[in-house]
Structure formats: structure tokens, C-alpha cells
Design a protein that fits this description.
Layout lengths: L7 H26 L3 H24 L15 H5 L5 H11 L1
């Protein structure tokens, strides 16, 4: 069975999550290597904000509904199901007496 494919919200959230990781790594490099703490903190906060957006988008995403296969007229379920109406019951009782 194939796994259900996710919609566009999940894909966007997944991409934003990778951007978050890149911003986090770059902010650490800026803080440690360049000694620019304000720029690094701003980048880290932007990454946290994007991470929050990515989590919200993936929470609201739903998998795409798979296409249902066509059922043939001679299927097993149709052969095993039958309906008895009230008129069938009355006729059988009259025949039996």
C-alpha cells in the first residue's frame, strides 16, 4: 500500500523548517566567529519565528485522499448482500399457509 501524499501546506512547512536550521547555524557562526551578537540574535529569533510557522503549517496539513478504485458489478460484496422487503415476507407466509 502506498503512503498518502501530503498537501502543499506540509511541503511548505518542511521547506521552512530547513530554512530554520540554516538560520540557526548561521546565527551561531555570526555570534562566535564575527562577534556580532545583535545580528546573530536577530537571525536566531527570525529562525524561531519561522520554525513556529512551519509547525503550525504542518499541523493543519492533511494527507491527500487516495483515489478509490472502481468496483465491478460482479464484486464479492454485491454477491453476498441481499435485501428482503416486507412484501417478500408476506408472500412467503401466504405460500406456506
Amino acid at each position: 500500500m502506498n503512503a498518502p501524499k501530503m498537501n502543499i501546506l506540509y511541503k511548505i512547512g518542511f521547506i521552512i523548517m530547513f530554512i530554520c536550521l540554516v538560520l540557526f547555524v548561521v546565527s551561531i557562526i555570526v555570534i562566535l566567529a564575527l562577534n556580532e551578537s545583535t545580528v546573530g540574535v536577530i537571525m536566531a529569533v527570525a529562525g524561531v519565528f519561522l520554525c513556529l510557522i512551519a509547525i503550525i503549517l504542518t499541523m493543519f496539513s492533511k494527507p491527500k485522499k487516495p483515489k478509490k478504485p472502481k468496483i465491478e458489478n460482479n464484486s464479492f460484496s454485491e454477491l453476498n448482500t441481499f435485501e428482503i422487503s416486507s412484501t417478500d415476507t408476506v408472500y412467503r407466509e401466504e405460500e406456506n399457509g
